[in-house]
Amino acid sequence: LLELGCHVIMVFDGRPLPAKKNTNEERRQRRFDNVKAGELLLSEGKINEALGKFKRATSITSDIVESTISYFRNHAKVDVIVSPYESDAQLTFLVKEGFADIVITEDSDLIVFGCEKIAFKWNCESGDCMIYEKSQLPQCFSGTMRTQFDFTKFRRICILSGCDYLQLLPRIPSYLNMPKLRVTKEFIDDFIRAENTFIYQVVFDPRQRCQRPLTKYLCCQKDSYLENNENDFASDEQFLSKDYSYAGEVISSKLAVRLALGNQVWNTLKIQLSDMFTCFDNRSIHIELLKVESV
């Protein structure tokens, strides 16, 4: 991409998302189990089988992320953002707000987040890929789903088909056509939280140097996300985000910038990454984030 003259924005996951706590714990347990199984197979001389287990136990450490960020920050045409929580929401926001033209990923969750344009299965040598465009999504269906396409209904179908934010009832996808299906109030509440996580997950706005929800909170009466008080302490969104804490909470602008740059917000003992992030807003005005030394 750089050889072709493209400007690349690399986006990394940030803090663990509360709504994904159960999923993360399950994955952590699976990695642990795979390590134990791999060690057992290795002791039995079954090297190939052991390697397969060890591969399933692979995880990306913070040191790997930090070294990657430090390396690519030296490239003139590469920007790096660490999202407040999950990169899916952040990538969706960057395309939605015109910071990026397209997302290259293998994660189909971006479709459910409402990302406008995605490149799947991209081959870096040939350039071949599968392009997804949200505007063309209705063409993938037939009948009423095509002629009266409703993205909200589509998102809910995807959630019920299985997502990281909802613990599904056993075999519920096969029950979706059952008109007399009854579920508990607890499941309905969990479903609402899962959907809200796709809608209101907290992201970082590099133009305004603050965190905000991917979609404006329904109860927010302001026309702008920028109206922090003179002490840069807390906006209305920061307070309102507590109602959607499972989708992430908005923190102060100073902390938000430090996190977006790749610094560990609550660890001031580590070397702090200086602010080299630059971008263009929709009016093509060049802006730079202020360097944040400490809080």
List keywords for this structure.
9 strands, 3-stranded mixed beta sheet, alpha/beta
Short description:
It is found in: Nucleus. This is Exonuclease 1. It is built from ten helices and nine strands.
Provide an overview of this structure.
- With 295 residues, the chain is an alpha/beta fold.
- The chain has one domain (2-19, 61-291).
- It contains 10 helices and 9 strands.
- A 3-stranded mixed β-sheet has the order 3-4-5. The protein has a two-stranded parallel sheet with strand order 1-2.
- α1 (21-43) packs antiparallel against α2 (47-56).
- The longest helix has 23 residues, at 21-43.
- The radius of gyration is 21 Å and the shape is globular.
- 26% of the residues are buried.
- Its EC number is 3.1.-.-.
- Residues 74-143 form the XPG-I domain.
- This is Exonuclease 1.
- It is an enzyme of class 3 (hydrolase).
- Keywords: DNA damage, DNA excision, DNA repair, DNA-binding, Excision nuclease, Exonuclease, Hydrolase, Magnesium, Metal-binding, Nuclease, Nucleus.
The total count of helices amounts to 10
The structural domain count equals 1
Number of strands: 9
Task: State which percent range the strand residues make up.
Answer: 5-15%
Q: Structural class per helix/strand content?
A: alpha/beta
Adjacency order of strands in the biggest sheet: 3-4-5
| Residue runs with pLDDT of under 50 for 5 or more positions | 221-234, 271-295
| Global shape | globular
Could you describe the largest sheet, including whether it forms a barrel?
3 strands, mixed
SSE order, one letter for each helix or strand = EHHHEHEHEEHHHEEHHEE
Taking the alpha carbons of the first and last residues, their distance comes to 36 Å
Supply Rg: 21 Å
The overall average pLDDT, rounded, is: 81
Report the helical percentage. Answer: 25-40%
